[in-house]
Design a protein that fits this description.
The chain is of the alpha+beta class and 153 residues long. It has one domain: D-tyrosyl-tRNA(Tyr) deacylase (D-tyrosyl-trna(Tyr) Deacylase, Chain: A, 3-Layer(bba) Sandwich). It has helices at 39-51, 66-69, 99-117, and strands spanning 2-15, 18-23, 26-32, 55-56, 62-64, 72-77, 131-145. The strands form two sheets. Strands 1, 2, 3, 6 and 7 form a five-stranded mixed sheet that branches. Strands 4-5 form a two-stranded antiparallel sheet.
């Protein structure tokens, strides 16, 4: 499971002209589910995202987490994070989980992150065409991945 984590001062996601989720200061998390992922990867990644120390302290050093600052998180599903463009010009998505597996794990991740933060976590709409807007703060963008146990080499 992979999260492209962006520290933002604001972010929102829109589907069919309607905003489905919006936050102020916090993290925009674009989430990709690998075909071999389980709830174990989602648990680890939710804890990691909630506790990443990427927000500034009084001295301006990245020393505070989303939990520490009481920030918000917005999660958007993005199967293209597992796209492989190493061959040819059209990406292959064979590493991405199929929708029937990815959606429950995506929802599970959101629920676990919500528990970690002690508040609801807004989202996009799984499988929908979405417009994501954000103001990247820093900019700070991290690739955070937990490879499935059976996919480790």
């Amino acid at each position: 499971m992979v999260a492209l984590v962006q520290r933002v001062s604001e972010a929102s996601v829109e589907v069919d002209g309607q905003i489905t989720g919006a936050i102020g200061t916090g993290l925009l998390i674009l989430l990709g589910v690998h075909r071999d992922d389980t709830e174990a990867e989602a648990d680890w990644l939710a804890r990691k995202c909630a506790n990443l120390r990427i927000f500034p302290d009084e001295a301006g050093k990245m020393n505070r987490s989303l939990r520490d600052i009481g920030g918000e998180a917005l999660v958007v599903s993005q199967f293209t994070l597992y796209g492989d463009a190493s061959r040819g010009h059209r990406p292959s998505f064979t590493e991405s989980a199929p929708p029937e597996k990815a959606e429950p794990l995506y929802r599970y991740f959101v629920a676990q992150l919500s528990k970690e933060l002690g508040r609801p976590v807004p989202t996009g709409v799984f499988g929908a065409m979405m417009r994501v807007r954000l103001v990247n703060d820093g900019p700070v963008t991290l690739w955070v991945e937990r490879k499935p146990k059976n996919a480790l080499s």
